[in-house]
Amino acid sequence: MPPRPQRVRITRVEFVAALVSWSLSIVTTAALAAVGWFGHATHWTFGLAGHAGHANGHGTAAHAAPDHGAAAGHEDTPPREADAVHFKSKEAMERTGIELVPIEERPMVSELVASGVVHYDQRHIAQLSARVPGSVWRVEKHLGDTVKKGDVLLVIESREVGSLKAEFLNALVAHEARVEQLLILEEVKGAVMGRQLREAKSALREAKNHLHNAEQALVNLGLGVAITDYEPLDDESRAARIRIAGLPESLLVAIDLDHITSNLMPLCAPFDGIVIGRDAVVGEVTDPTEPIFEVADVSTMWVVLNISKEDAGRVALGQRVMFRPDGSTDEYESRVAWISTEVNEETRTLEVRAEISRGPAATVAASPDGRSTPAGLRANTFGSGRIEVDRRGTALVVPRSSVQWDGSRWVVFVPTGESTFAARPVSPGVQQGDSIEIVGDFAGGIRPTHVVGAGSHVLKSQILLERMEAGEL
């Protein structure tokens, strides 16, 4: 047989407590319903506004529908207009704090403001090191010096360089010997075996390859050695010339050429710029893996701005950028040149880069070599940038406080009488500071000259209240 269901026993105390709880709920619901009916009947003024109106002859903001209780004293109350607010008097309107502001017609610019930092142009900054092991023989340039492409920064003494120079001279002699041997065999080719002639030609090709390899090894070190420059010279002239290969004329004037070593190799600037780093003293051992000079072209600087991910979609290539370094009153103009394809993992911002090639007229300084550099724009300087994301040549502009959302659309309130205001739908446009562009078709095609500024929220609240009472919300 199935088990018999258990009976739930309720004590007398529990029954009384439950009955009291239900009674309180019923009483509370009835009280709320009474308050709602009373508020609806008095338009939520609870007699205060009505008494003040009868006592002073004024009232607070009234509904769009005519006030039957005051009809006898206000026969000129305008008829009801959709989304309109009527005040019973000008004094009642003034007590709400409503102020009219003119609609301006002027250009508008929408900008994004972001923090940023200045960097060197990463395409024109080089960390230079010796290409072969050795030691510093002479230092020509120092920190802050302006250099041009090809200028000697320092001279390195390396035994490996001397060996490569000697190998080049030996390869040149061996090639000449193979050429001479082939010429002799070709003159008597009728008296020698064909195999000897073929071996001579093969040896010549091999010697030529060795010579070109030796030449290329010196070119890779930046010495600028060419076979054609050495072929017309005798052995002594060749040795004297290759000993000073790559050294500038200004350096040769100051040294004794009769006692100079052939192990010298210059380290030259790869482009025009300024020495921004140097870690070399005479006699110091150099390592090809360690940079000893750093050169940067400062005629163009990078500005990297950090854009919030919410505004990332508003940034595009070519947009105008204005950057002001911290502590400076000057602004530098540029364009967005690069937008990162990822958000920074640490800051969760999007990096945007602009390139600044010149500063304001008052801050452009000429460097010793005549190039213009953006003076005052230093690497690793923080600052603030403004990106122009939208622009209007001519726009209707009002304060942002004038534009209100009425639950379904954006509106502004325009005066239609001395104490009457009507809502007009608009579309917000470009925003700039506390101003905003409005676009809309005004009633009758006539553009008003003023809108409500301060106090527009009061009018919006009144319209929403009327809609609630009419059951529209």
Radius of gyration using CA atoms only: 45 Å
Separate helix tally: 9
β-strand number:
24
Shape: rod-shaped
**In percent, how helical is the residue content?**
25-40%
Which stretches are low in confidence, meaning pLDDT under 50 for 5 or more residues running? 40-80, 359-373
What's the quick description here?
By secondary structure, the chain is of the alpha+beta class. The chain has helices at 12-41, 48-56, 90-95, 159-187, 194-220, 227-230, 235-243, 249-252, 456-469; strands spanning 61-62, 84-87, 100-102, 104-120, 125-128, 134-139, 146-147, 152-157, 264-268, 273-278, 285-286, 293-296, 301-308, 320-325, 332-343, 349-356, 364-366, 372-374, 382-399, 404-405, 410-415, 420-432, 435-439, 450-452.
Secondary structure topology:
Blueprint lengths: L11 H30 L6 H9 L4 E2 L21 E4 L2 H6 L4 E3 L1 E17 L4 E4 L5 E6 L6 E2 L4 E6 L1 H29 L6 H27 L6 H4 L4 H9 L5 H4 L11 E5 L4 E6 L6 E2 L6 E4 L4 E8 L11 E6 L6 E12 L5 E8 L7 E3 L5 E3 L7 E18 L4 E2 L4 E6 L4 E13 L2 E5 L10 E3 L3 H14 L4
Helix pairs in contact: 4-5
Description of the structure:
- By secondary structure, this protein is of the alpha+beta class.
- It is built from 9 helices and 24 strands.
- The strands form 5 sheets. A 6-stranded antiparallel beta barrel has the order 4-13-16-15-14-19. It has a 4-stranded antiparallel β-sheet with strand order 5-12-10-7, with no helix packed on it. A 4-stranded antiparallel β-sheet has the order 9-8-6-11.
- Helix 4 packs antiparallel against helix 5.
- The longest helix is centred in the N-terminal third of the chain and has 30 residues, at 12-41.
- It starts with 11 loop residues before the first helix and ends with a helix.
- Residues 40-80 and 359-373 have low confidence and may be disordered.
